[in-house]
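Field: COMPLEX_INPUT
Field: COMPONENT_COUNT = three
Field: RESIDUE_TOTAL = 1479
Field: MODE = joint
Values follow.
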Amino acid sequence: MFMKSLRSLFALLVIPLVLSMGLGLSASAMAADGQTNQQQVATNDVDLWRAVKAGDSGYTTAKGVETGVLINVVGNEGKDVRNEYLVPVMGITVVGVFAAFLFFYLVNGPSKLSKGFSGKMVLRWSKADLWIHWVLATSCLALIFTGLNIMLGKYILQPYIGEGLWAGLIYGSKTIHDWIGPVFIVSWILCVVKWMPLQTFKMYDLKWFLVVGGYVNFGPFKGKHPDSGFANAGEKMWFWTLTIFGLFIAASGLMLVLPGLDLPREASMAALLIHGISAIIIIAFTIVHVWMATVLSEGGMECMVSGYCDENWAVQHHNLWYDELKDSNGIVYKD
Amino acid sequence: MRLNRKTDQAVTSDKAVLGLNRRQFLKSASLATGGIAAASMLGAGMMRKAEAKDIPHDAPTETKRTICSHCSVGCGVYAGVQNGVWTTQEPAFDHPFNAGGHCAKGAALREHGHGEKRLKYPMKLEGGKWKRLSWDQAIEEVGQQALDIRKESGPDSVFFMGSAKFSNEQAYMYRKFAAMWGTNNVDHSARICHSTTVAGVANTWGYGAQTNSFNDIRNAKAMMFIGSNPCEAHPVAMQHILIGKERGAKIIVVDPRFTRTAAKSDEFVHIRPGTDIPFIYGLLWHIFENGWEDQTFIDQRVYGMERIREEVKKYHPAEVANIVGATEEQMRRVAKLLAETKPGTIVWCMGGTQHHVGNANTRAYCILQLALGNMGVSGGGTNIFRGHDNVQGATDFGLLFDTLPGYYGLKTGSWKHWCNVWDLDYEWVKGRFDQEPRLGQDPMTSTGIPCSRWHDGVLEDKSKIAQKDNIHMAFFWGQSVNTETRGREVREALNKMKTVVVVDPFPTMAGVMHERTDGVYLLPACTQFETYGSVSASNRSLQWRTKVIEPLFESKPDHVIMYKLAKKWGIDKEFFKHIKVNGEEPLIEDITREFNRGMWTIGYTGQSPERLKMHQENWGTFDIQSLEAPGGPAKGETYGLPWPCWGTPEFKHPGTQILYRTGREVMNGGGNFRARYGVEHDGVNILAEGSYSKGSEIKDGYPEFTDKMLKQLGWWDDLTAEEKVAAEGKNWKTDISGGIQRVAIKHGCIPYGNAKARCIVWNFPDDIPLHREPLYTPRRDLVAKYPTYEDRMVARLPTLYKTIQEKDFAKDFPLIITTGRLVEYEGGGEETRSNPWLAELQQEMFIEINPADAADRGIRDGDNVFVHSPEGAKITVKAMVIPRVIPGECFMPYHFAGVFEGKSLAKNYPEGTVPYVIGEAANTVMTYGYDVVTQMQETKASLCQVSKA
Amino acid sequence: MANMKFLCDTKRCIECNGCVTACKNANASAIGWGIQRRRVVTLNDGEPGEASISVACMHCTDAPCMAVCPADCFYRTDEGIVLHNKETCIGCGYCLYACPFGAPQFPKKNAFGSRGKMDKCTFCAGGPAPDFSEEERKLYGANRIAEGKLPLCAELCATKSLLAGDALVISNIFRERSAARGAPEALWGYKPTTG
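Field: COMPLEX_OUTPUT
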């Protein structure tokens, strides 16, 4: 739907420029001529012009990708989508999600452990898990910040800083983004492979959603502690979002960062848009995830610092996991 | 916003440049120039001149006026030079030919100032390795080997291949050089370009050149391009052609391919390669049938049209459709258009000339124009586009195996005329030649060995050739051997010769395609931008070039190299008798003046260096529509004084833009057909009847002027006393005072007489054009009716015709192959493929093949394919699958070289000289076939097979 | 103020590639083998209806490259010429994706990462570096506009097919040509604007 309206918008703006290449002339110029000319019978200039606009390819001595195409508007339509939708949405997402959580936090306060800290620490993450998490987290954050600069910096930073500083900043962002990308992809693969068995959805996850995970301190949800396994439903959702959009963002990122692929404009622009959409989603979840871990869920952060969680925290937030461990005598306490 | 050129000079400044003020700078620049000679023994790296990027923008710019050295359109160029480096190229908007326009080659001209891939110093192949030589040593060795061969085998065993890249002065000197050496084995690429035109057209009406001009095409109402593709070969001519079209002219393109020019046409006629004569006769059939011919014109100015009328009856529409492939309807439409839309012009190029019946093709085109009465008028004529920048000049100066400068021929009288001009003793010149008749031919007065067949001169059994011995040594002076057909024989001949000498800015194919380990010399010549002189465009205008830069590396101008060799051979005193030599450089202006004194036949006499330089300085005063100067110092003159520019320079003839134009006085560029073949034939008068140029005091035809004729007319006393002395016993061609010409023109008469053009050329094997199937024809069914000639001796060489046509190759080689040009490259392509700006555009040799033929062979666009020749050779090229060619026909560009039958020759080049792009040479698979009059090679109609590689 | 545009008259264009090499000639200091700021495209090659057209940066009024560039390295001169700052360019390639005419070119074919500094037609107007400076010549090539000259590609066009200059002026030239060709109704198909 909107692509269509974009197209007509584009037509209004760009086609006059294209026309100035002189191809648009002469619709019926020759036909009226009455000459016995097979050439002009076969093809008139209107057809030619139509073909050019449709992105038909011709012969050229220039080497390179799609050099025979005179006009290809797809990339420009993509640019419009990017500039008119993705850029504002990304800005709104960053600010909005952050602000919404801040608001929620101020109203709701942190989710406290109802029985307080027990002082007994239960092993939750191995050292390898911690490494994977933090490498993934760091690379992801680096990509987010550099990516935000690439997407939004032109609007929010560039006008206020000097040219030299901006050039350095944007060049740095692009370079860091390029080189951190592969780190992200590797840690993402490890994360997905290693953690996937823990992330399958169960029936009780549905209930978890019904009470918003039990983090709400007021209204009908107050004091609810829904069932949850090693990962609660929210974490599972985050995991699967990261898995799916991580795949998209990695694949599209590779398309953008490997010039040797010689992709056509359509593919490159599609990659750019997919990259942006995926980024918006991942950024939104990342913000939520960071909020939850750091301030909202009391005792949550500790898990990813030492790998151990408080026994009470385990009981309150991951009761099924705790019960299972307990039944199988699998609990490992910190010395 | 108006954006006009503000000045010819870029911003100049007197302020300090690199810590120098301008005065000091100039001083240091001149020191630097002197230093180049001193540095010449340093390594190539050291010798690299300053690059454009090292020159500060505000260094003073000197703007030089020069002429593009690629094609014969003759586009003007403003070259900006800073610190001796060619840094800018600006459009010459005021130049009357191109108005600033350039094709890819012209727009890349400045790259000549870089010359990355040029041959940097004299070299010699020794033990399979290139070894650097000093100039003196190179000249000593090359010169001595020539002398040794001369002693053993006679002067005819040295072959002088010349070039259409020479300036007029150099071309003239090269022809004289061969004469001084004592041989007629001198030729250049005009042989394989328009030799058939020169022979065919000159024998029809007098001069074998473009009759009108590029600019005059603006005035045509119809244009027929046959075997001509100016979009690729003469792009700037398209400026005038398209303006003509916009003014309402109809364009007809006749070609085997749907060319870029065809895309701009109103009517495209496909003809099978090699069927030009039946096509023209097919048009004439409709013209005669409907009474569309110009009978008054024919009666007054044409001889022998009745014979044509008889012959044409055989070419009725069904027959033409069968031979040519064009339908009756289309033929009638084209004939009607030409008959009703006048004036109309015919343009032809290699597509018409490069056939074994090329001379007859060109005559057929002329006959069509004669029948239509399109000659001698603005907008009409035969606009024959020449190829190289100075192929017209080099042809005019007789850089040919069959004539002395000015088409004087090789008769004793001709030699005596030139000895008179040279102020040399005829007996001395004669003594330089082989004195014995060979196979009944006298070496001095008989035609030599042509450019197209020098390899036969090496390889043929020596008892069968009309000279003492085979060719044992050849100078390839500015010519690419990959433009000659039968590549395998070319290689064999290069292998067999005692010594191969390449004199060229580049190593060229002759330097690398052989399998020798010794006896090859490469002498670096410089380009026309590193010297100066005059150049003749296709329209016969002469243009002066200024030297742009000093010769790059150790290269030298051609005339300097000739001087050095002449000195070694001990003929320099005679060679340069009236030409001043500064150090080792003969003075160009003296050479111009010398040929001014001798070129009476074609009016190369009025174009003194002073007049040409004045035209050069005043490009902008000539009107682009008329080519004439309405005011200014050249008032009333035509740009470049197109020949014939009669009389002496002082006579101030304005040049002749349109040949045979009876509507003007001779003194104003008018004229009529030339009386070149006597006054009657078979008892019939062949002088003009009732037609004469405006203002002529003889109101009828008249023969060419001689001293006797002046006396009979009572005009003898119009000569001055000195003129009388010079004119006594002479004619308009040999009177070197110019008196006879002056007096004839004073009485409104043209010196060469006033005759009819002749449709019957009784001195040729076919006195009227006859269709003969190509030697390699796919139409075996037509061979019996339209057979080729019997094998015969042409010039010094036995030449095959029937022997080849007898064999049926069409079964195994079903595809017709024709060759042609690409806009980005020129000639053999060595120069243009070494120019990165051009080479980047065409990186691979290819063959155009129709999708149907490609599908039959499982070939897809971009595949590697083999092209097989019926003579055995096989090359590997890329397939370009395209409907431009019809099923059954293929096309290849001929500019590529550097790969031979699948093997790269890159390692054979001296270090750093491999062109940016190399590829298979089309002519490796092109086959036997030579014009019966001029030995033009057949490159436009042969057979091949294509298979997937 | 002028509003610079190119216009290629397809009725005159013969695919001689003069504009392509003219560009190389003028801008040799900035562009080497592999970069062609201008190219000629022939449609229906080898068939009736064949037409050629020379294309480079069109210096669009609402330039997609400028809009999409994350580094904001593009700018428009007073003459309406779209230029870019190679110091700021990060080689991301977005302009290449967005440009309908395929004008942006990249010099390097890295396996990974940046494509190098983008290069495109400058309308022979150099770049942000000081006029005629060494830096300008090496990064952007010629600055003919500052010398009071038009782009060399159009000035050297063999058949005067490629026109460059103020949109009004060149559209008038073109209008006159079309009218002279006897097809006044065949003007641009729209009223040429200068905006």
